[in-house]
Amino acid sequence: MDPARHRRRLLVALFATAVSTQSPSPLLLRYADVLDLGALTLTLFFAAYAAGLVPSLLLAGPLSDRDGRRRVVLGGVLAALVCTLVLVAADVGGVTFLVVGRIAQGLASGAVFTVGTVWLRELSASDDDAGPARVRRAAAVASAVMASGFAAGPLVAGFLVQWGPAPQLVALAPSAVLLLVGLVGLRGVPETMTDRRPGRLALGVPPVARRAFWAYLLPVGLTVYTYAVLSLTVFPLLVAAAGFGAVFALVGVSALLVQGSAALVTPLATRLGPVRAGPLAAGLAAGGCGLGYLAVQPGGWPWVLPACLLIGLGEGLGMTSGVAVCDRVAPPDRRGALLSAFYLPVYAGFVVPTVLALVSGDALRGGVPILVLGGVGLLLGVVLLGPGRSALRAAGATTATPLAPVLAPVDGTDR
């Protein structure tokens, strides 16, 4: 089979998985409204997704380093299809199906995103005609496709939930169809991890990358979903409480803004390099929280849109710079493990709305906790400017060329 066809088939699977992970967001908001579950329960649905991601991120990368990329990605896409069907059946199974489906969805998507990213890069590098620039271009296509999935999934589902018939049934139907197509298409895509690592899994951060991880990768990872998930939970909940009606559609548009701007900003991240892109990501996240505070005030809902724009720009810069550093500081046989470790703080952001709801209580309605989260973003920027910059210079990763990030494309140009 043509090597280009192999890459296209993997891209379809990555797109389908990206669509399936974000499509449930408007539907979860609807269930919270129909079942009168409250803000805390809604945020727990997103925390459940993160709970599934943690073991997946810890194990999927190292497992693929040892046993190969293909087995992990195939299993992940199949599991994502089953999870989508469970969420469709939540109209009958209720809250239990929602929680179980979201935990399992985290397990599946963590494996596909981590290992699929590495697999695509290696498929491109294994092509006899491929040079470094061609490998980067292929990675850029993958990143753009996945970013499109993150944006398109909740946009389509949001409109179906807001205005479609039987939203609990039709909202996730496109995701299920896409996953089935992606699963069938992975047949024949070859394994790239031919030099297997026998024995126990090599978990955790490689010793050579530990300083860069704690001083840079951890704080920059926290700038990604910690703030992006506000557009799916806290913002729509508080805007609805302030009197805005079409909140399900707003979730879809907000996700489109966040993920679309994350994709578009990546060429800038490539030119800036990790040293500058990381602190800028933290500053943009803080600015998005400032606008988000205005958005949740009575009549302030239009501020949601520029808030999501700033948060999305920060998300794209943070993810791109973090994955670039992973690609530079990890040895090839530990790249999957380090990327998995980086995704832990990235996806820990899904727990943040639950923490805000638990800690702040009724104070959340006024929006002050959003400002506090903005202050945390500023502190992360200080860490990235100081210890983070020093760690990158020590590791020689100040001009790292990005691997394909999960959220946004790279332009494939040399710096």
From TrEMBL:
Name of the protein: MFS transporter
UniProt keyword annotations, A-Z: Cell membrane, Membrane, Transmembrane, Transmembrane helix, Transport
Keyword Transport attached: yes
Pfam families listed in its UniProt record: MFS_1 (PF07690)
Subcellular localization: Cell membrane
The organism of origin for this protein: Klenkia terrae
Claim: Transmembrane helix is one of the keywords in the record: yes
Spans traversing the lipid bilayer: 37-60, 72-90, 96-120, 141-163, 169-190, 211-228, 234-258, 279-297, 303-325, 337-360, 366-385
Source domain of life: Bacteria
InterPro entries: MFS (IPR011701), MFS_dom (IPR020846), MFS_trans_sf (IPR036259), MFS_Transporters (IPR050171)
Membrane topology: Multi-pass membrane protein
Ranges of residues in domain Major facilitator superfamily (MFS) profile: 1-415
